[in-house]
Design brief:
Blueprint lengths: L2 H15 L17 H4 L6 H5 L8 E5 L5 H14 L2 E6 L15 H22 L9 H14 L5 H9 L4 H4 L1 H11 L2 H8 L26 H14 L4 E6 L12 H13 L1 H4 L4 E8 L3 H7 L6 E4 L4 H14 L20 H9 L3 H18 L8 H19 L3 H10 L3 E3 H8 L4 H13 L3 E8 L8 E7 L2 H7 L5 H8 E3 L6 E3 L27 H19 L2 H7 L8
Parallel strand pairs: 1-4, 1-5, 2-3, 3-4
Antiparallel strand pairs: 6-8, 7-8, 9-10
Helix pairs in contact: 5-6, 5-7, 5-11, 6-11, 16-17, 17-18, 18-22, 20-21
Length: about 575
């Protein structure tokens, strides 16, 4: 099949279903051109943006795929309409740094100053009349700052600085599309950008404006104040530094501890976080929360956790489908073979496990399976739905459980909840100390969670023992490949009506539990006197404790020192 024919078939497939394009093509917010049409602002979104007249710093935590970058992008858009100079700080490559723990405050400040100055230069170049707003003395200050932070800039560094000005592409659209390509790449571009301040001829001419006082790292906050003053003179109400993708840097990789280490100099400096005319907005991996709260003055700096419940996911799903179907499709159920007892949309919400990204991936998997079955179909078949769900669960389980041996061991268990005595005596036939060591690795892999103590009929001492359960529904489904999706959900899954947790149990077994591991609600329906908000608060604390333990190997080890479970 030719490329043109393949592209035509691709578009015909989505058109037959009622879409003008693939609604699940991207899971990276930076690639989503229609994001603003289906963005769901969290309850505290306006607080994160704040008041540009009195900017404040704010920290948002969310799991990977939880909407941090989408929120940052919408803050960028909001900055355009509110005269806020937005600097997106999402690249953390320092030429003289080999590891995250070596990053100091001056490394961050120099990059922030560079990005801000380039932003002001682009602003001046796009509107030459702004030059008249600056006095001769202010132009001299601008030249001194540029000499310090731009004089030796490389072409690649300038490109990074321009990329940090993501909101400028909307505010100065004509300039960005026409002038940026015209002025050329690298240092030539910088020479052109400097013309409203001084016609240097060559960027090397900046060197004569260097100020020895600016060489000292101790003067960087003073230079930052000068930059804020220049921004105010050019019409900006303030500067927002939008910090994102810290855990995607080559310095941090997949390490929460390295991600925190990289940002710790910024987070520790209360004077900087409360700097006049600047607001730092951090969009951070939730595994950094406990470390951040250890060093951040939470009485002065606000923070929030971005949690997605089913209602929020449903609204996002509906708006996304509408955006790609000219407002004609708000649920996949409209264009699918009916499934029971769960609709195709309910299946996507359930197996997304509170993750917007995973919900999009599930939708993509299902439509890919349908395209394989029949690229000309006008409906999504039941077979495509369940194949897509099962393939996604298999892929996601392997991403969550990175050690294949752990997944193989869990498949041997043949239950989604279990005790140490059961595993030691009935499954692995080994000493309980060996089982504990095995389960420590499971816990480090985020495979299991502690539920509560239960009476163990196998215990000779008749003492209560800890009950553990599989934490993630995708991992649980992978353990039971022979069960079709509906049967698996019927036997193993419930959703806690109080805290929205996914509760996986061997329902009905004598040594199982009806208790939600997060909020302690009894899912058997028995009433209690605890108010719903208190249970949600308890669930929040429990989830935070789990995240903290995930980063602490010693805490995981201690959690398995359960002498009561010895038989």
């Amino acid at each position: 099949m030719s490329l043109n024919s393949s592209t035509q078939t691709f578009h015909q497939f989505f058109s037959s279903l009622g879409f003008d394009d693939n609604p699940f093509a991207y899971t990276n917010a930076d690639q989503e051109e229609r994001l603003s049409s289906y963005f769901i602002p969290p309850p505290y979104f306006n607080s994160v943006f704040g008041n540009p007249e009195q900017p404040r710093s704010f920290i948002v935590f969310a799991p990977r795929g939880g909407g941090k970058s989408a929120q940052r992008i919408m803050i960028e858009h909001k900055c355009v309409d509110n005269e806020v100079l937005a600097i997106t700080y999402d690249q953390f490559e320092f030429p003289d740094i080999a590891k995250a723990t070596d990053v100091k405050l001056h490394h961050h400040l120099r990059r922030i100053l560079r990005f801000s100055l380039v932003g002001l230069l682009v602003n001046l170049h796009s509107d030459p009349l702004l030059e008249e707003q600056l006095t001769k003395e202010e132009k001299q200050i601008f030249l001194k700052l540029a000499a310090e932070h731009l004089c030796e800039i490389k072409g690649a560094d300038l490109e990074i600085a321009l990329n940090s000005l993501k909101s400028f592409k909307d505010k100065f659209k004509d300039f960005w599309n026409e002038w940026i390509p015209a002025i050329g790449p690298g240092i030539k571009a910088l020479s052109s950008l400097m013309k409203p301040i001084a016609d240097l001829g060559d960027i090397g001419g900046l060197a004569k404006y260097q100020d020895p006082e600016f060489k000292s790292s101790k003067s960087l906050k003073y230079q930052l104040r000068l930059t804020v003053d220049l921004a105010h003179k050019l019409g900006w109400k303030c500067i927002y530094i939008l910090v994102d993708r810290v855990d995607e840097s080559s310095l941090t990789g997949n390490s929460a501890k390295d991600s925190f280490a990289l940002l710790e100099p910024l987070l520790r400096d209360l004077q900087l976080l409360e700097f006049p005319g600047i607001g730092f907005k951090f969009f951070l991996w939730d595994l950094l929360q406990s470390e951040c709260e250890r060093v951040v003055r939470t009485d002065r700096i606000d923070l929030e956790i971005l949690d997605w419940d089913k209602d929020m996911l449903k609204r996002l799903w509906e708006k996304r489908l509408c955006a790609f179907s000219r407002e004609q499709i708000s649920s996949l159920e409209q264009i699918s073979t009916p499934t029971s007892p769960y609709t195709i949309d309910d299946l996507a919400f359930t197996f997304a496990n509170h993750s917007p990204r995973d919900m999009i991936r599930i939708g993509g998997k299902i439509l890919s399976e349908q395209q394989e079955l029949d690229p000309f179909s006008k409906r999504v078949d039941e077979l495509a739905i369940y194949r897509g769900i099962e393939k996604f669960c298999s892929q996601r389980a392997a991403e969550i459980i990175t050690k294949s041996k752990v997944l193989q061991e869990l498949k041997k268990v043949r239950q989604v909840d279990f005790t140490i005595p059961y595993l030691a005596n009935e499954v692995f036939r080994e000493k309980q100390a060996s089982t504990r060591s095995r389960m420590v690795v499971w816990r480090q892999q985020a495979a299991i969670i502690e539920v509560e103590r239960i009476d163990d009929p196998r215990s000779k001492q008749k003492l209560p023992v800890k009950l553990f359960a599989i934490k993630d529904i995708r991992v649980a489904k992978e353990i039971y490949p022979e069960l079709d999706t509906s049967e698996f959900l019927k036997r193993k899954y419930r959703r806690c009506p109080n805290c929205d947790a996914t509760v996986l149990r061997d329902w009905g077994d004598s040594d199982s539990s009806n208790t939600c591991h997060d909020c302690r609600w009894d899912l058997s329906g028995q009433r209690d006197d605890v108010e719903g908000w208190r249970r949600k608060e308890l669930a929040t604390r429990r989830r935070r404790q789990y995240r903290e333990e995930t980063l602490d190997s010693e805490a995981i080890q201690l959690s398995f020192l359960d002498n009561d479970s010895l038989t």
